[in-house]
Amino acid sequence: MGILDDIKPPQKKHRPISWSHTPELIHVEWDDKKAYAYAARALRLACPCAGCVDEWSGKRTINEAAVPADLRIAGLTESGRYALALAFSDQHATGIYSWDYLRTLMETWTR
Ligand SMILES: [Zn+2]
Question: What pLDDT is attached to residue 81?
Fold first, then answer.
């Protein structure tokens, strides 16, 4: 997110109709009938928290090799109506994934 994102005209925001999760993935159905299964490890590597992304450069500081291949989702809570807070089996639990962010991830990963 940069300064340009703030001055672009607002886009229609997509909201989830339903979602569910297992230790391996989160499955989300969106209001435009699109659905996507987010793999636990892919979500961990895309963690938006300050510990994983450099605040100033926006560069990802997470070491991909240090994230186990069998990483699981250890906990999930809804953070208000706008986000999911995820805890992973590597004890990392500071990531708040907004629905907007999850939607962007889906669009990036399915491009
Ligand atoms: Zn993080």
Answer: 86
Structurally, the chain folds into a number of domains equal to 1
Identify the segments of the chain with pLDDT beneath 70: 1-11
- What is the whole-number distance in angstroms between the Cα of residue 111 and the centre of ligand 1? 24
Q: Does residue 8 sit within a domain?
A: no
Distance 94 CA to ligand 1 centre (A): 6
Distance 85 CA to ligand 1 centre (A): 11
- Determine if the pTM surpasses 0.70: yes
| CATH number for the domain that contains residue 31 | 3.30.2020.30
DSSP for 32-59, please give it.
TS-EEEEEHHHHHHT--STTTB-TTT--
**Spacing, Cα 30 to ligand 1 middle (Å):** 24
Ligand 1 mean position to 3 CA, how many Å? 22
Q: Which pairs count as long-range contacts for 76-80, CB under 8 Å and 24+ apart, including other chains? A: 76/21, 76/26
